[in-house]
Write a structure and sequence with these properties.
Layout: E1 5-10, H1 15-30, E2 34-39, H2 44-50, E3 56-59, E4 62-66, H3 71-93
Parallel strand pairs: 1-2
Antiparallel strand pairs: 1-3, 3-4
């Protein structure tokens, strides 16, 4: 099964971003997933798109959380993506993709 990809759009000196990353880190200690941190100050486009909207968290390309990450809900979302990935692989293996 492919591990879900979690993208955290954040910026430096952001207490909400730091807290979100701590929550995500705790869940990552239990459930394997890929994590990518994106500093919105790294490009003008990202700064324009996410300024005032950090942290924003995407799971497998879908926006899942903004500002605050609830640990229980985040865990559920990651597990759901793992299950969906497994079902997709089983369907593809059986010719139902």
């Amino acid at each position: 099964m492919a591990a879900p990809v979690v993208e955290v759009y954040a910026k430096k000196k952001c207490c909400l971003c730091d807290e979100a990353k701590k929550v995500i880190g705790r869940v990552r200690d239990e459930i394997p997933f890929q994590m990518k941190e994106v500093d919105i100050s790294s490009s003008v486009e990202l700064a324009r798109r996410f300024d005032g909207h950090v942290p924003t968290i995407f799971i497998n390309g879908k926006k899942a959380f903004k500002f605050k990450v609830d640990e229980v809900e985040f865990r559920k979302c990651v597990r759901k993506e793992i299950i969906k990935s497994g079902i997709s692989k089983i369907s593809a293996k059986n010719g139902r993709a």
